[in-house]
Design brief:
The chain is an alpha/beta fold. It is built from eight helices and six strands; from the N terminus they run βααααβαβαβαββα. The protein has helices at residues 22-35, 53-63, 70-88, 95-104, 117-126, 151-159, 174-182, 214-218, and strands at residues 9-12, 108-112, 136-138, 167-171, 186-190, 204-206. It is globular, with a radius of gyration of 17 Å.
Length: 219
């Protein structure tokens, strides 16, 4: 049998992989809806985790048949979110170590997130992995189709100059794992946001990002 291609690039998701940001964006979105006169629940957002804020907010609005100006709603959600970041946003233990270990091991390292650039830049600076330290960053604004479509990860592979089969994705969300596999990439999932049983499409599932080794990434 032919040998498997050597992994040369690591593509990280951000929310739920590097940062414990899911509760913050959820709180911000709940507050935004309440300002607009609709009381929603945190669990309403769960099916849309990892799909980007357009779908994250729009999906809940659709559920309640609630008309909303999505551009204004997203802008207000980010305003609330960015106020929470300095005091509440932290990196998951081991996240910085893993990223820097990959960088020091001559992997090409990219970040691909369904979030908008304003959120990505704030998060990365807050957790000590500044934008300039990455080989490539792909945001929601860079693609038409968000996760579970593979477009974000395929765009990241192009930016770091690798074929998809030479890349591994680190994900936490069901939609993200589906996107990685649709892109033809190896996927290592962390059970930060969803239980391991729901991440079974990944090639490997670890309990947390601190448990991931370079050997896990390369397979």
């Amino acid at each position: 049998m032919p040998s498997q291609p050597r992994i040369q690039g690591v593509i990280f998701d951000m929310d739920g992989v590097l940062t414990d940001s899911e509760p913050l964006i959820c709180s911000a979105a709940v507050a935004m809806f309440q300002e607009n006169g609709l009381r929603v629940q945190p669990e309403d957002f769960r099916p849309f985790v990892g799909t980007g804020e357009d779908r994250y907010i729009g999906g809940v609005a659709d559920k309640y048949h609630f008309p909303i100006d999505l551009i204004a709603a997203k802008r207000r959600t980010y305003e609330i979110y960015l106020r929470l970041v300095p005091a509440q946003l932290k990196a998951f233990p081991g996240a910085q170590v893993l990223v820097r270990r990959c960088q020091g091991s001559q992997f090409r390292v990219a970040l691909a997130s369904s979030a908008d650039q304003v959120k990505i830049l704030a998060n990365l600076r807050q957790i000590g992995l500044p934008p300039e330290s990455w080989d490539a960053i792909v945001t929601a604004e860079n693609v038409v189709h968000k996760k579970p479509a593979p477009d974000l990860f395929l765009a990241a592979a192009v930016q770091i100059g690798l074929e998809p089969c030479a890349c591994v994705v680190v994900e936490d969300a069901v939609n993200g794992v589906q996107a990685a596999k649709a892109a033809g990439m190896r996927c290592v999932a962390v059970a930060h946001t969803f239980p391991a049983a729901q991440l079974g499409q990944a090639d490997l599932v670890r309990a947390c990002v601190a448990d991931i080794t370079l050997a896990d990434l390369t397979g």
